[in-house]
Each structure stands twice: as C-alpha cells, then as structure tokens.
C-alpha cells in the first residue's frame, strides 16, 4: 500500500528514554486528529484521509514562530496541554519524534517539511534555527509578487518530489501577491500488509456503501 499525503498551513514505537518522551508529541497528534475528525467528516466527500502527524508537524512549525495569545491558543488546540507537554520542551520533542520516524525499518516512511519564503522576507534567526533543527525544514525563497507562476511551480516541484510523484500539483494558479510564507509538510508511506490479500479469492461483487 502506497500513500502520499500533503498538508499546507502516527506511528508508535519506543526506543529508549528519548523516544519515550517523543511519545508525548505522538499523544498530542492523536488528540489533534480526534478533534479534527468531526470537522473533516462534515465535508461532502464520503471518505476522509488525513495525517495527524502531518498536521502536528505543520502547525508545530507555526507554533515555533508564534507568540503571545496566538501561541497560547495553539498550545491548547494542538493537544500539547492535554498531553502534558511542557512548553519549553515542544520543539525538542518534535525533533525526537521526527528522528523516531526515521528508525522504522519494516516500511518506507518519509516526512518532509519546508517553508517557501517571500523574496526579501526576513525571519528571526531563532525561528530559522528552530525550523531547521526541530523540523529539518528546507527553506527556500520565491517571488510571489512578480513571478507568481514560477513560485507555484517551485512549490509544486517540491511537493511532487517528496510525495514521489503521487501529488504532482498542489496549486494550479499563482497565490496572492502579498503572500509572505507557505509552510509545507509532505508524508510518503509504503508498507506491506501483515496479511496479504489472496488474489485467488478475487471476485466481482456489488460495492455497497
């Protein structure tokens, strides 16, 4: 089974104390996922597929640059408070959580983060460091104002690369020229079924919803 997921705006395993702590972020992922399920399931589509890990990573990058009331609201909404994650440990635990993903050997799992910055935008050095060290985020500059189509093409190329071609296009037209930053997370998963389907039992039958 191969899945490509991309989000704009879990996997459970413990390997020592560091990864046990990273499990707190996993718990926060679950809380966020359950909170969003009723909202996403109200859409017209009969099936919903989303990744709490992706959402948590994406919004974790937003949290890293937030302050004041916004940061407090994100702390609550993203499940950190309910999971009893200390505010001063969030970024370090996200780093450990991402490292734990890379330790999985029985399937192919990759999670990539990025930030497309408006040309000329200056972000705080501490924020840039947090994105790179805690989320291993790739940062690149695009010109949303004068080269909107090229900016979208650059973002779409990143998406296609990190979903291994499963999502070749995220945006089909230029973004608003006053866009400051696009934060991205992409997940690629390929794994084997514990019990594989036996093709000899394949037969045509009506599909009932």
Describe the structure.
- With 209 residues, this protein is of the alpha+beta class.
- The chain has one domain: Antithrombin, subunit I, domain 2 (Antithrombin, Chain I, domain 2), CATH 3.30.497.10.
- Helices cover 41% and strands 17% of the residues.
- The chain contains 6 helices and 4 strands; from the N terminus they run βααααβαβαβ.
- The chain has a 4-stranded mixed sheet with strand order 1-4-2-3.
- The protein is globular, with a radius of gyration of 19 Å.
- Mean pLDDT is 85; it is low at 1-5 and 9-18.
- This is Serpin domain-containing protein.
Quick structural overview:
This protein is an alpha+beta fold. It has helices at 16-40, 52-64, 68-77, 90-101, 125-135, 148-162, and strands at 2-8, 107-118, 138-142, 181-191. The protein is globular, with a radius of gyration of 19 Å.
